[in-house]
Design brief:
The chain is of the alpha/beta class. Among the domains are: 153 residues, TIM Barrel, CATH 3.20.20.210; 347 residues, TIM Barrel, CATH 3.20.20. The chain has 27 helices and 22 strands. The strands form 6 sheets. The protein has an 8-stranded parallel beta sheet with strand order 1-12-11-10-9-8-6-2. A 5-stranded parallel beta sheet has the order 17-19-20-21-22. Strands 13-16-18 form a 3-stranded mixed beta sheet. The chain starts with a strand and ends with a helix. InterPro entries: Cbl-indep_Met_Synth_N (IPR013215), Cobalamin-indep_Met_synthase (IPR006276), Met_Synth_C/arc (IPR002629), UROD/MetE-like_sf (IPR038071). It catalyses: 5-methyltetrahydropteroyltri-L-glutamate + L-homocysteine = tetrahydropteroyltri-L-glutamate + L-methionine. Catalyzes the transfer of a methyl group from 5-methyltetrahydrofolate to homocysteine resulting in methionine formation. Its EC number is 2.1.1.14.
Length: 766
């Protein structure tokens, strides 16, 4: 039977692409060097799948930054501010859109559906002139063919591309982006024609927007678009893939009813109801079902016996040869290869499957479905599944009981936030428009070396502590010189905002090379939550206490919230996510209260990923927000009124969950604002009252561009038009970990100057 992989990680098993990109951006290597690294990675991936026996191997899932940005380049939708005058979209234009440049800010970046992957948001309007401006998809197909490997070129489908776009600056907010389909489709037709001429047999269009709750007229638009494209395909077979949720019944009926569609890819891991839909509504015998039974978003080994049973049921319903075994989504969201992990023990490794192992699972399931079952492989899998269910390292009855006991309370602080802010101000004595940063300061090469050296025992623990304390002292002194009001210690001891805490909690495991792309060259190494979670001892108190001893200004204690730890980890799939969240929340609650006892009066509990976990279907969102927000409140409900609780969120759309954010009951929230064109402020213009402190970011830290003082001051003025000065804070969009000091110092200098200008303006009007 046939097998299919929807997509594969791009960074390489040891982040080869990351290092090549950053070397190129720093001017240390050439475009040719970058292209060679990319070509070698692509060849390795295609050969790996070919050798494994994958029937449908994807191409064009590689990207130098993001597949949506690749589509923007393909269709020539480059915003005018980048000075592109036509022709092929070259690296300078491509990376300017992604990262900004000295003169222009980057395009908005936001989360790809409900994942931690970020895409660059297309900016479109009535003036856009779509034209084929990148032949990357053709070049990669040809490249694989020259290696003797037939691939399936993959494109972001036209409906999803426009659904993820936003009106360009100056275009009405209610501009009908889907109305651009008629202008967009000729480019897709041209691409289809070139792939046909090159000999392609199949083409894959990813249309995950179909899993969303769509108005009926959007289904009509989708149908019209594919009916318009239909004559272009000819003998080229079309596979349309959806993922991340159940496919709604109207979308299922539409997709399976389109004559031009030869294969339909469905997520049967997160789309559990879709299985019943297939069985009840049926599936056309003229099409192939690409059954996504191997999880593309987690690292647990597939339960092969259960998957084979399901595949057998589907095949008996659809007919022999009509079911293709597939991944539930692209494997982009998983780590690359378990064979690179040298520190995980044998039992734990037997429970796991990274992208390379998932290829083997897909091929093995396809073989078993076709009557060629690898009995040894299936037996080993069954043994691992059984050991995980009973292992004492997974289950802790005391933790389970403590988390279950949380259900009886809402865990709210007794005093209203306005009164708490008054009490806090008496102690903190902050100026109007207080300035702060989000937490991290630049992670220099020397700093990373110190952390590596202590792990490899090249330096002693005492030498490590001395080096970290020296860095903290330097960061504190720098902030005082900049005249920032509420300080941070810079987090030099932390490798990652989730991994750092996971390393100190029970129930977590860690990889050496389990890297996953978040955006561009930025990779994260998610912890693996395999068991019940507890905190053996304090995690941050010593560093925070030392940092506070260096200054009379308030020093923030910096923690990562339970929902972000959950959403940025590979989470156990043997219990509801809600239960795991409550276990983590109890651990963070203990840490918050220990920080308060140590004299830390401002504590930030980051929930950067709260929005990310929001289910895609509206009917499921209220339940998620209820337990996610409750999890945050558990962490902070035990502190005194004089202790100020901050939280931070970034790079998602927040307007639709503002009520839930208010319900978190934090004293201050800092939130990304500048890169998304101040979209956040619109919710306050529409009448939402926010009584707590709030710091919408005044500059984008994910771009090397340094905004001047007046630009930041103007952002603050816009904020003051909709927010009271007594609740407004001034801060960057996000942490400064990925930036260089040569960028950070002038940017923070300008930020503090902007805050002082606005303080003077406010004083002159009173």
């Amino acid at each position: 039977m046939a097998s299919h992989i929807a997509g594969y990680p791009r960074m390489g098993p040891k982040r080869e692409l990351k290092f090549a990109l950053e070397s190129f951006w720093d001017g240390k290597s050439s475009a040719a060097d970058l292209e060679k690294t990319a070509k070698d990675l692509r060849a390795s991936i295609w050969k790996q799948m070919s050798d494994a026996g994958v029937s449908f191997i994807p191409s064009n899932t590689f990207s130098y930054y993001d597949q949506v940005l690749d589509t923007t380049a393909m269709v020539g939708a480059v915003p005018p501010r980048y000075g592109w005058t036509g022709g092929d979209v070259a690296f300078d234009t491509y990376f300017s859109m992604a990262r900004g440049n000295a003169k222009q800010p980057a395009m908005e970046m936001t989360k790809w559906f409900d994942t931690n992957y970020h895409y660059i948001v297309p900016e479109l309007g009535p003036e856009v002139k779509f034209t084929l401006s990148s032949r990357k998809v053709l070049e990669e197909y040809t490249e694989a063919k020259e290696l003797g490997i037939e691939t399936v070129p993959v494109l972001v489908g036209p409906f999803t591309y426009l659904s993820l776009a936003k009106p360009a600056k100056g275009v009405a907010k209610d501009f009908d982006l889907l109305g651009l389909l008629e202008d967009l489709l000729p480019v897709y037709k041209e691409v289809i024609g070139e792939l046909k001429s090159a000999g392609a047999k199949w083409i894959q269009f990813d249309e995950p927007a179909l899993v969303l709750d769509l108005e009926s007229h959007k289904y009509d638009v989708f149908k019209k678009a594919y009916s318009d494209l239909a004559p272009s395909f000819g003998d080229l077979k079309l596979l349309v893939v959806t993922y991340f949720a159940d496919l709604p019944a109207p979308a299922y009926e539409l997709l399976t009813g389109l004559e031009c569609v030869d294969g339909v890819g469905l997520d049967l891991v997160r789309g559990t109801k879709t299985v019943e839909l297939i069985k009840v509504a049926g599936f056309p015998s003229s099409k192939k079902l690409f059954a996504g039974v191997v999880d593309g978003r987690n690292i647990w080994a597939n339960d092969l016996a259960s998957s084979l049973t399901l595949l057998g049921e589907l095949e008996s319903k659809l007919g022999k040869g009509n079911v293709v075994v597939s991944t539930s989504s692209s494997l982009l969201h998983t780590a690359v290869d378990l064979k690179n992990e040298t520190k995980l023990d044998a039992e734990l490794k037997s429970w796991l499957a990274f992208a390379a192992q998932k290829i083997v699972e897909v091929v093995s399931l396809a073989g078993a479905l076709g009557g060629k079952k690898d009995e040894e492989f299936f037996a080993a899998n069954a043994s691992a599944q059984a050991s995980r269910k009973t292992s004492p390292r997974v289950h802790n009855d005391e933790v389970k009981k403590a988390a279950a006991a949380l259900q009886g309370s809402e865990h709210r602080r007794a005093t209203p936030v306005a009164d708490r802010l008054d009490e806090q101000q008496k102690h903190l004595k902050l100026p109007i428009l207080p300035t702060t940063t989000i937490g991290s300061f630049p992670q220099t090469a020397d700093l990373r070396r110190v952390r590596r050296d202590v792990k490899s025992k090249k330096i002693s623990e005492e030498e490590y502590v001395k080096a970290i304390k020296s860095e903290i002292a330097s960061v504190v002194k720098l902030q005082e010189e900049l005249d920032i009001d509420v300080l941070v210690h810079g987090e030099p001891e932390r490798n990652d905002m989730v991994e750092y805490f996971g390393e100190q909690l029970q129930g977590f495991a860690f990889t050496v090379n389990g890297w996953v792309q978040s955006y561009g060259s930025r990779c994260v190494k998610p912890p693996i939550i395999y068991g019940d979670v507890s905190r053996p001892k304090a995690m941050t108190v010593e560093w925070s206490s030392y940092s506070q001893s260096l200054t009379k200004r308030p020093m923030k204690g910096m923690l990562t919230g339970p929902v972000t730890i959950l959403n940025w980890s590979f989470v156990r799939n043997d219990q509801p996510r809600e239960k795991t969240t409550y276990q983590i929340a109890l651990s963070i609650k203990e840490e918050v209260e220990d920080l308060e006892k140590a004299g830390i009066h401002v504590i930030q509990i980051d929930e950067a990923a709260l929005r990310e976990g929001l289910p895609l279907r509206k009917s499921e969102q209220a339940a998620y927000l209820n337990w996610a927000v409750h999890g945050f409140r558990i962490t902070s409900c035990g502190v005194k009124d004089t202790t100020q609780i901050h939280t931070h969120m970034c790079y998602s759309h927040f307007n639709d969950i503002i009520t839930a954010i208010i319900d978190m009951d934090a004293d201050v929230i800092t939130i990304e604002n500048s890169r998304s064109d101040e979209k956040l402020l619109s919710v306050f213009r529409e009448g939402v009252t926010y009584g707590a402190g709030i710091g919408p970011g005044v500059y984008d830290i994910h771009s090397p561009r340094i905004p001047d003082t007046e630009e930041m001051a103007e952002r603050i003025r816009k904020m003051l038009a909709v927010l009271e000065s007594k609740v407004l804070w001034v801060n960057p969009d996000c942490g400064l970990k990925t930036r260089k000091y040569g960028e950070v110092l002038p940017a923070l200098t300008n930020m503090v100057k902007a805050a002082k200008i606005l303080r003077a303006e406010l004083a002159s009007t009173h």
